[in-house]
Design a protein that fits this description.
The protein has a single domain, classed as Potassium Channel Kv1.1, Chain A. A 6-stranded mixed sheet has the order 1-2-4-3-6-5. β3 and β4 form a beta hairpin. The protein is built from 3 helices and 6 strands. About 25% of the residues lie in helices and about 35% in strands. It has about 100 residues and is α/β, with parallel strands linked by helices. α1 crosses α2.
């Protein structure tokens, strides 16, 4: 995974210090939501993906429900909405998002 570290901070629901890592390829400046998921390889690390919610909801009924529900959304990393996705790991989410944005 190609990514760059942004900041270390505490998660809203966790008392331990976490390292937040922004994905360099699946991070769109015009994205309206940040997906946050625990790293599949590094302990105490959260991977962030800034994407477009209409694209997600078109291709994923699970994410449509989560985004529509609003209960998993927290104040954003840099102002936009943040959605925690605890049901998966960073590699699986990365592959899914890359397949949406670069299908070939």
């Amino acid at each position: 995974m190609s990514s760059s570290t942004i900041v270390s901070t505490t998660a809203p629901s966790c008392s331990s210090l976490l390292k937040w890592v922004r994905d360099s390829e699946v991070w769109f400046s015009d994205g309206d939501i940040v997906l946050a998921v625990k790293s599949s390889t590094a302990a105490q690390t959260v991977h962030l993906f800034r994407v477009h919610s209409p694209l997600l909801t078109l291709h994923s009924p699970v994410l449509l429900k989560k985004i529509s529900d609003n209960t998993n959304q927290k104040p954003g990393y840099s102002g936009e909405r943040m959605l925690w996705v605890p049901e998966t790991n960073s590699k699986i989410l990365e592959y899914f998002l890359r397949s949406l944005y670069n299908p070939w």
